[in-house]
From TrEMBL:
Pfam families: F-box, FBD, LRR_At5g56370. SUPFAM superfamilies: F-box domain, RNI-like. Residues 380-452 form the FBD domain. This is FBD domain-containing protein. It comes from Brassica campestris.
Length: 463
C-alpha cells in the first residue's frame, strides 16, 4: 500500500509532465521567456522543452549586461532552428549605454555592433515566418532591416524609437496591428505608403512625443480596413515643430482617439456615425481664423454618436463659446466629458449642440466648496431625449454638486436613471446628503436615483 501510495503521490506531483510536448509548449507560450527557461531545471524531460516554444520575449533588464543578452538570443536561435517558425519576437532594450559596451562585444565575438546583431535577429525571425514583431529601443537607432517591409506572415508590428528607411516595395498582406511610437521616418510619403500597404490593417497607433531628426509635416492615414486609430502628438515639447496636418480617411473606423497639445490641422473624411471618438486636443481661439479651424474640426466630428471629451478640450470649448455657438451634433447620443469647476456654467450651452443626447457621463475637476452654480437655460435634450446621467466624481455635498443634481432632476423630462457616488468623511454626512437628494423634485416620475457609497464599493441606494 505504501508503494501504491508513493507512486500515486509522484503521479499527482508530476502530472503535468505526462502531457505531450506540444501541450507543454502551448502552456509555456503564455509566459515570459525568462520564466519558460527556468522550467529547464525541473527534470531531464523539461530541459529542452523551452527551445521548442515559438516565442522569444526578452528585456535587457533580465540580464546582467548586454553581452549576456546577446549570447542568450544567439544560442536560442541556433539551438531552436528545428522549429518551423517563430511566432513572436519581442525585444526591449533599455541600457543607458549599449554602444560603449559594443566594442568589447565586437572584440569577443567578431560582430560589428549591437545594431548589426539585432538586424540579424530580425532577418532570422522574418525567415522563420514571424507573426508578431515588437522592438523597443530607449532612443532612436539605426535603420530597421528592409525585410520587415515584405514579411508576408507578419500580423502585428510594434516599433518604438527606430528609424524606418524608405523602400520602393512595401507589402504586408496579413498585418492587422501596427503601433509606431516615436520613430523616425524617411519622409511623409513613406509613412503613408507603409500604412496603405497593409490591406487588412485594423489597429493603428502613431505617437510623436519625442524629439527626432526628421520632421513629419503631414500624417496621412488612408485605409478601408482600419477599425481603430490612435494619434498622439505631444506639442508641449519645446522642439515640437512637425506634423502640422493630419489627414484621416478611414470609413470603417469604430474607434478614433486624438491627443494633441498644439492643435494640428485635421482633415477627417468619411467618418462613420458608429465611430466612437475620444478627443484630447488643446486649441486657442484668439482670432477668427483660429476659430474657423476649431469649427471645422468639430464639424468633421458632428456625425458621430459616441464621444469622449477631455478636460483640456472642454476648457477650449468654453472659451470658444464666448465668441460663437458650437456646431450641432444631431446624431450624438452618448457624451462622456470632464469639466473644470469654472466651466460648469457652460454645460447648458454645450448641451444645446447635442439635441438628441440620451446618455451623459460627467467628471468634475477642482470643484470648490460653497461655489454657486448657475444654469439658467434648459437645452432641448433635457426636455425630450436625455435618459441617463452619471456623475462619476464622488459627491461630498458641496453646494455646486447638489445644484447640478437638482438641475438634472428638475429639468429632465424623460430621465430614467441618475447615478452618482457619495464620498463622506463622517458617518452622519451620508444621511444629510441623502435627505437633500430625497427632497429634490423630479420632473420625470420614472426616474431612479442610484447613490453608491464610496466606502462600501458594492453598496448602492436607490432613492
Amino acid at each position: 500500500m505504501s508503494k501504491r501510495g508513493t507512486s500515486g503521490c509522484r503521479t499527482e506531483e508530476d502530472r503535468i509532465s505526462f502531457l505531450p510536448d506540444h501541450l507543454l509548449c502551448q502552456i509555456l507560450y503564455n509566459v515570459h521567456t525568462k520564466t519558460a527557461v527556468m522550467t529547464s531545471v525541473l527534470s531531464t524531460r523539461w530541459r529542452t522543452i523551452w527551445l521548442s516554444i515559438p516565442l522569444l520575449d526578452l528585456h535587457t533588464d533580465d540580464f546582467p549586461n548586454f553581452t549576456a543578452f546577446v549570447i542568450f538570443i544567439s544560442r536560442y536561435l541556433d539551438l531552436s532552428t528545428g522549429s518551423s517558425c517563430l511566432h513572436k519576437l519581442k525585444l526591449a532594450l533599455r541600457f543607458q549605454d549599449i554602444s560603449s559596451e559594443s566594442w568589447n562585444l565586437a572584440f569577443l565575438s567578431g560582430y560589428l555592433s549591437p545594431y548589426y546583431l539585432i538586424t540579424k535577429w530580425i532577418n532570422k525571425a522574418v525567415t522563420r515566418k514571424v507573426q508578431h514583431l515588437d522592438i523597443l529601443y530607449p532612443w532612436i537607432v539605426e535603420m530597421m532591416p528592409l525585410s520587415i517591409y515584405t514579411c508576408v506572415t507578419l500580423v502585428s508590428l510594434k516599433l518604438s524609437n527606430v528609424s524606418l528607411a524608405d523602400s520602393e516595395y512595401v507589402s504586408l498582406p496579413r498585418l492587422k496591428i501596427m503601433h509606431l511610437v516615436d520613430n523616425a521616418y524617411a519622409n511623409d510619403a513613406f509613412l503613408e505608403k507603409l500604412i496603405s500597404s497593409c490591406p487588412v490593417l485594423e489597429d493603428l497607433t502613431v505617437v510623436r512625443n519625442k524629439y527626432t531628426e526628421d520632421y513629419l509635416e503631414v500624417l496621412r492615414v488612408r485605409s478601408q480596413s482600419l477599425k481603430s486609430l490612435v494619434v498622439d502628438l505631444d506639442g508641449r515639447k519645446c522642439w515640437y515643430r512637425d506634423c502640422r496636418v493630419v489627414v484621416i480617411d478611414a470609413p470603417g473606423l469604430k474607434y478614433l482617439s486624438l491627443k494633441d497639445n498644439q492643435f494640428t490641422s485635421y482633415v477627417i473624411r468619411n467618418l462613420s456615425s458608429s465611430t466612437k471618438v475620444d478627443t484630447d486636443v488643446s486649441f486657442d481661439v484668439i482670432d477668427s481664423s483660429k476659430r474657423r479651424v476649431v469649427r471645422r474640426f468639430f464639424t468633421m466630428l458632428s456625425n458621430v454618436r459616441d464621444m469622449t471629451i477631455s478636460q483640456t478640450t472642454l476648457e477650449g470649448i468654453c472659451v470658444y463659446l464666448k465668441h460663437e455657438q458650437l456646431p450641432q451634433f444631431p446624431h450624438l447620443i452618448r457624451l462622456d466629458a470632464v469639466l473644470y469647476n469654472s466651466d460648469l456654467g457652460n454645460l447648458a450651452n454645450i448641451l444645446e449642440s447635442c439635441q438628441n443626447l440620451k446618455s451623459l457621463v460627467l467628471e468634475l475637476s477642482n470643484l470648490k466648496e460653497e461655489e454657486l452654480l448657475i444654469l439658467a437655460s434648459v437645452p432641448k435634450c433635457l426636455r425630450s431625449s436625455l435618459e441617463y446621467v452619471e456623475i462619476k466624481t464622488p459627491i461630498r455635498g458641496d453646494v455646486a454638486e447638489i445644484e447640478l443634481v437638482k438641475y438634472f432632476l428638475e429639468n429632465s423630462a424623460v430621465l430614467k436613471k441618475l447615478k452618482m457616488c457619495l464620498r463622506c468623511w463622517r458617518m452622519n454626512e451620508e444621511s444629510i446628503i441623502l435627505m437633500q437628494l430625497l427632497r429634490l423634485r423630479r420632473c420625470s416620475t420614472s426616474c431612479e436615483v442610484v447613490a453608491q457609497l464610496q466606502e462600501l464599493e458594492e453598496t448602492s441606494l436607490k432613492l
